[in-house]
Amino acid sequence: MESGGAGGEGETAGWRFGAANPALAVAGSQSIRAAVTRIYRCLDGSGDARPVAPLAHGDPSAFACFRAAPAATDAVAAAAASGKYNHYSPAVGIAPACSAVAAHLSRELPYAVSPADVVLTAGCNHAVEIMMSVLASPGANVLLPRPGYPLYASRAALSGLEFRHFDLLPDSEWEVDLAGVEALADANTVAMVIVNPNNPCGCVYSRDHLAKIAETARKLGIMVISDEVYDHFAFGSKPFVPMGVFGDVAPVMTLGGISKRWMVPGWRLGWIAATDPNGILRNKKIIDSVIDYRAISVDPVTFVQGALPDILAKTDDAFFTNALGVVKKAAEICYEKLKEIDCITCPHKPEGSMFVMAKLDLSSLDGIEDDVDFCSKLAKEESVVICPVQIVNIFLDTLFSLGHQISDDDDASTVLTIGSPPSRFLSVGLCIRR
């Protein structure tokens, strides 16, 4: 006899729960976090005195040379101490914060974004979750970039939303293959996603290319979801241009946040904004659906919302200039050092975000089966943790993150030097330490 619970004894019918959710198992196993965890398990803990080089993520706060701006930390401390923000927030976010985001975005657009078209989220990942859920109507599909950020595909799959991948072209500065987009789209396509500045390719799209993306979206009758969490993280020849500049051509949902530019991913504050002066997204009830989803999902921390107006308005330009300078220096070193490795080439010098893509020839390596095997052995033998391509949408074959170290005396040196290098395609993260 088994205990029946509630203080009594009796037979049970057998527990009706316990099987893993297969969809979650697949999505979770393909996440950046799961991949990095698997690679960390390969580290040799048997006396290697070298510090681990954690180069498989885009968290700048892990490195001492990147600290939050004093204006931002002061704003959060003041908001928390004020006692004004200990409450639940409205589904869209508190009004002053929504207004601050609208004003922040409007500065670079030929029209004003309404605060009513801004919804705050618990980071940009939450914004991705919301958009993939909102668009998941029966039969619908979305177009995602390859290489790209894997959360889009995972969230689409969990929501029952079909996704199709279009290519980014390495020989054309990782621009979108617009002919490929048109070939993939059909009557059920509702949106295409772009990431600009781009993770993981390290490119920044020109105004001309963004205009062509908008024209393609209008031709197909779809919205553009523009992931701009790295907005203004551009340090090459092309300035950052928000996709919303072309919102009058095709409706744009802009995703953003403070995690990257302000170096505070742990504060978990992002946004979704309809940069759509023609009001198409509101008329089609997309904004309503976003708000409905927010009503049943987690809120961004209220006191961080309360601090947001001061974070956006009072952070000194020198803070951003310094951060970009450090990343630019790392990018230049990375690009030059990779050129010294026989079997590695970079199709395009990094110009934005914290990553660069390079080409790796695995045929030149003995005993390496694939990208996961390479990353696992690199962790074990060199204490360098990088992320395999299979997590970043399997573009060609191998994609990983490298990093660079800026020493205290500002003499920059690479963390990793590959003597007899691997090869195929890989993403090199410009994570920095000091």
UniProtKB/TrEMBL annotation:
| Matches recorded under InterPro entries | Aminotransferase_I/II_large, PyrdxlP-dep_Trfase, PyrdxlP-dep_Trfase_major, PyrdxlP-dep_Trfase_small, TyrNic_aminoTrfase
Which Pfam family, an example, fits this chain?
Aminotran_1_2
Superkingdom as given in the UniProt entry: Eukaryota
Positions bearing N6-(pyridoxal phosphate)lysine: K260
SUPFAM superfamilies, per the entry: PLP-dependent transferases (SSF53383)
Keyword presence, Nucleus: no
In alphabetical order, the GO MF annotations are: L-tyrosine-2-oxoglutarate transaminase activity; pyridoxal phosphate binding
Protein keywords: Pyridoxal phosphate
Stretches of the chain forming a coiled coil according to its record: none
BP-aspect Gene Ontology terms: L-tyrosine catabolic process
| Family, per entry | Belongs to the class-I pyridoxal-phosphate-dependent aminotransferase family.
UniProt xrefs under NCBIfam families? tyr_nico_aTase
Q: Please give the name of this protein.
A: Aminotransferase class I/classII large domain-containing protein
Source species: Oryza glumipatula
